[in-house]
């Protein structure tokens, strides 16, 4: 996945890094192609999201135990909650990146400094809007929301494949009418039709968050930029 590629790119040269899920492709509806399996066979180290978020890799992890498999979800004890989007948790990310760096015989301290600076920046720009409520498109941001102390009121859907029921839609519209929601966030991979249907003509700001971080390049500071850009987008939409 691209966000894991952003983490790996901190210590892996671009020519040695292959991303199975390219930008804009969601792990929720992805299936491996024969060429993807070839890339897995050729790889020495596979940095992945774990069996819950990338179930299509689980069988290969059992089949090829001689390869180095670094599963970011194995660092779940460092996160405050159990949610499969562990690249959204800074402690889990730092720990997983360190294992990758150590495996390659490289230093992880530069990545840690960049991420810590991104967290400091994020907290600074988000401080004025921490109490302002918002809806996200789907439940991919829980680690980020909790670690940054934000007020996520709800999500349009648990996963992109599931549409909310009428009761959920009615509750969300009641929250919108009551002024409890300052911004609704869509995602670039999915049609905004669901968001438009729920919000209708109610006066609430719209923004865009991308849990895949497609806007960030695979570079040494790509993951840090992913964090700061997400903070900027949230702050811009939540600011009155």
Can you describe this structure?
The chain has helices at 2-8, 34-42, 58-63, 90-104, 109-126, 142-148, 166-177, 193-199, 222-238; strands at residues 45-48, 68-71, 133-138, 151-157, 183-186, 205-208. With 240 residues, it is α/β, with parallel strands linked by helices. The model has no long low-confidence stretch (mean pLDDT 92). The protein folds into 2 domains: 2-116, Nitrogenase molybdenum iron protein domain (Rossmann fold); 128-238, 3-Layer(aba) Sandwich (Rossmann fold), CATH 3.40.50. The chain is 41% helix and 12% strand. The two termini are 34 Å apart. Pfam families: ZnuA.
Short description:
By secondary structure, the protein is of the alpha/beta class.
Fold topology:
Elements lengths: L1 H7 L25 H9 L2 E4 L9 H6 L4 E4 L18 H15 L4 H18 L6 E6 L3 H7 L2 E7 L8 H12 L5 E4 L6 H7 L5 E4 L13 H17 L2
Parallel strand pairs: 1-2, 3-4, 3-5, 5-6
Average of the residue pLDDT scores: 92
Tell me the structural class.
Answer: alpha/beta
Percent strand: 5-15%
* Cα-based radius of gyration, to the nearest Å: 18 Å
Q: CATH homologous superfamily of the largest domain - what is it? A: Nitrogenase molybdenum iron protein domain
Keywords for this entry:
globular, Rossmann fold, 4-stranded parallel sheet, alpha/beta, 2 domains
């Amino acid at each position: 996945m691209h966000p894991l590629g952003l983490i790996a790119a901190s210590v892996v040269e671009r020519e040695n890094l292959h991303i199975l899920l390219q930008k804009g492709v969601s792990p929720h509806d992805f299936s491996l192609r024969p060429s993807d399996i070839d890339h897995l066979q050729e790889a020495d180290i596979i940095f992945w999201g774990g069996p819950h978020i990338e179930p299509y890799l689980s069988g290969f992890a059992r089949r090829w135990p001689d390869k180095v498999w670094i599963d970011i979800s194995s660092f779940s004890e460092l996160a405050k909650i159990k949610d499969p989007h562990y690249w959204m948790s800074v402690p889990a990310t730092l720990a997983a990146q360190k294992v990758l760096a150590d495996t390659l015989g490289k230093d992880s301290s530069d990545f840690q400094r960049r991420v810590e600076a991104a967290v400091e920046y994020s907290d600074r720009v988000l401080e004025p809007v921490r109490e302002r409520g918002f809806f996200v498109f789907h439940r991919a941001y829980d680690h980020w929301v909790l670690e940054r102390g934000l007020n996520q009121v709800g999500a349009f859907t648990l996963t992109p494949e599931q549409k909310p029921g009428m009761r959920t839609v009615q509750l969300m519209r009641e929250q919108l009418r009551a002024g409890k929601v300052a911004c609704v966030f869509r995602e670039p991979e999915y049609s905004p039709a669901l968001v438009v249907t729920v919000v209708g003509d109610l006066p609430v700001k719209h923004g865009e968050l991308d849990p895949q971080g497609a806007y960030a390049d695979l570079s040494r500071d790509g993951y840090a930029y992913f964090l700061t850009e997400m903070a900027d987008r949230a702050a811009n939409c939540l600011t009155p």
